[in-house]
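User: Second chain of the day. Same drill as before.
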Amino acid sequence: MIPTRGGPMKHRGWASQLSVARHRSSVVAVCLLLIAGQLVLRAWAVFPSFFYADDYVLLADARDRGASGAAGYYLADFNSNLIPGVRLLAVAVEQAGTLEWTLAASIALALQAAASLAALAMLLSLHGRRWGIVPPLLLYLFSAVTVPSYMWWIAALCQLPLQICFFLGVLTWVAYLRTRSLRWLAACVTLVVVGLAFYTKSALIAPVLAFLAVGYFARGRLLERVRSTVAAYWPALVVFTLLLGGYTAYYRVTVPQPFTDEDGAQMGQVLSSMLGTSLPTSLVGGPWRWWDTTPPVVLAQPPIWAISLSSVALVVLACYGFLRRTRTLRAWAMLAAYAVALAVLLGGSRGQIYGAISGLEFRYLTDVVCAATLALGLVFLPLKGAVESSEERTAPLLLWHAPRWVTVAACVAVTVGGVVSTVGYVGFWHHDNASASFVERLRADVDRLGPVDLVPQTLPDSVMPAYTSPMNQSPDFVDLLDLPVTYPDSSDRIGMIDDDGSVHGMTIGPGPRTAPGPSEGCGWRIGERGRSLRLDGTPGSQIAPNWMRIAYLSSQASVAQVTLDGTTRQESVRPGLNNLYLRAEGDPGTVRIDGLEPGTTLCIDVVEVGPQVLGPAW
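Assistant: Same format as last time:
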C-alpha cells in the first residue's frame, strides 16, 4: 500500500521524534537524579562537621576587617593566595553569628550543587543529550578526590568556585569558538575573573581553553593550528593576555612568596607520589584506604595492588579508546599536562616542606577531576561544532566492541568505590576534629560557670596547629566564641583550659615560696605598716609563664599594694579566706605587701611563685 499524506508514514515520523525526545529527556532526568544523590551524600557529610584550623583564621580576619579597611581586607593575601571572593563569604558567615556552622555548611552545599549542575551543563553543551555523558558525570559527582577540599570549609570556598568556573568557562568558550560571538567571550572572561577571585589556581583554566581551540577547532600541523587559531580568535588572545599578565604582575608584587628553594630536591618525590599513587587511584574510585596522619586531615593510602590495578585500568581504557576511535590521544595529553602542572606547583611550594607525602593530599589534586571529566567526554563522544573531534574509526583497530553491560559495570564499580572512599574520609571529620569537641566543651563549661578569668595558653596542635599562630593562642581563639571570658594579670579565681576544652582551676608549679609564718593561726600577719616576705626555693619555669599566689585571710575588704621584683601593683583583697593570683615577672626574692586601709589585718598563709599548672576541673 502506498502511504497517503497524513497516513502511516507521517505517524511513524511523529512517533520517532517523540521517542527521541523521550530518550533525551530520560538522559537529563537520570543525570539530575544522580546529582540529587550526590547532594544527599554531601549534605550528610558536611552538616555534622565543623570548622578547622585555617577556617578560624579566616573568620578572625573577617571579624577584624575594619582595622585594615575594605580594600586592605579583601586584597590581602591568605596563605599566598588572593581570595577576595572567599573573604566576602567569610564576612557573611561571621556577621550571621558566632561560628555559625549551619550557614557555612549550607554555603558549601550550595556551591557543590552549582558545580555539579555546571558539570552537567558543560557535558550537555559539548556532547548533547546522550547516555554517553553519564560516565564522565559520575566520575565528577562521586570521585573521592573532591571530598577533602569539600570538608575543609576554607578549601571548599576556594575549590568549588574554581570547579564552577572551569565547567562554565569551557561551556562559554566552546560557544565562542562555534559562533565567534563576543558575548560568549565576555561571559568566559568574566568566569575566569570570578574564579581568580576565589583561587589563584583558576589561572589554569586558560591553558585548557587554549587547548580546546587548537586541538578541536583548527586543522593541520601544530604551528598551522596555532596560526589559524590566533587569526580567528585574536580578540580572545588579547583579552586573556592582558588579564593573566596583569593578574600575574599584581600577584608577584603584592603576595609574599614563602617558598624560595629552587633546587627541586623534592620535586621528583612529589611527582612520583601524586602522579603515580594519588592520580590513578582517584580516577577509578580510590583510594579506598586513608592514612590517619593528623586527623581530621588524612592522606590517601591505597593498597599497593590497588595502585597497580588502577594504572592498568587507565591504560586499558586509553588503549581501547585509541583502537576504536580517532583523535583520542590529545584529550589524554591535556589531562596529563594538567596533572603535571598541579604536581609542579605543589613541588615548588608545600612539597619543599613535606616532600612525597604532600602528593598524597587530595586537596592539591582536586581540580584534576574537572580536567578528567572533560577529557573522558572528548575521548568517547563527538564534540558538537568542532572542526575535528573524536569519532568512531571506519576501520577499527580493535574489532571487539565493549557491550553495554561492561560500561555499566565499570561505572558502578567506580561510583561505589568513590562512595566507599568518601564515607571513610568523612568519618574522620565527624569524629576526629578536635577543635569541634573543644569548642563544644568550652562553651558548655563557660555557660555553666558564668564569667571566668583565664590565663593565656597555647592551644594543642590538634585544635589549632602551630602554623596558625597567633590564632593558636587561647585569647585570640576564644575571642571568636564571644564568651564572657577575660585574661587579667590579676584575679582572685583564675582557670585554665584543658586540651579537651574543659575549664579547670590553675595551680602553681614548683618555685620559690614563703616559709610558714610565725603567728599561730595567722601565719604572716600584716597591718597598716606592711611587711616584706622572703621567698626561698628553686626559681620557677623559664619557659612557661610564672604566676604568684597569695593565700590570705582578710578582716575586711581593702586595697593593697603588692611589690614584686621592683614593680608595685595596687590590688584588692576581699574579706575572708581567699587567694590572689598575680602574673609574675623575673625571679622574685621578696614580696612586699602594704598600703592596707586602716583597721585591716591580713593573714598570709603562703606566697608561692611558679609556672601555671592545670588544676582540678571546676
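The domain at 435-618 is CATH 2.60.120.260 (Jelly Rolls).

User: Great, on to the next one.
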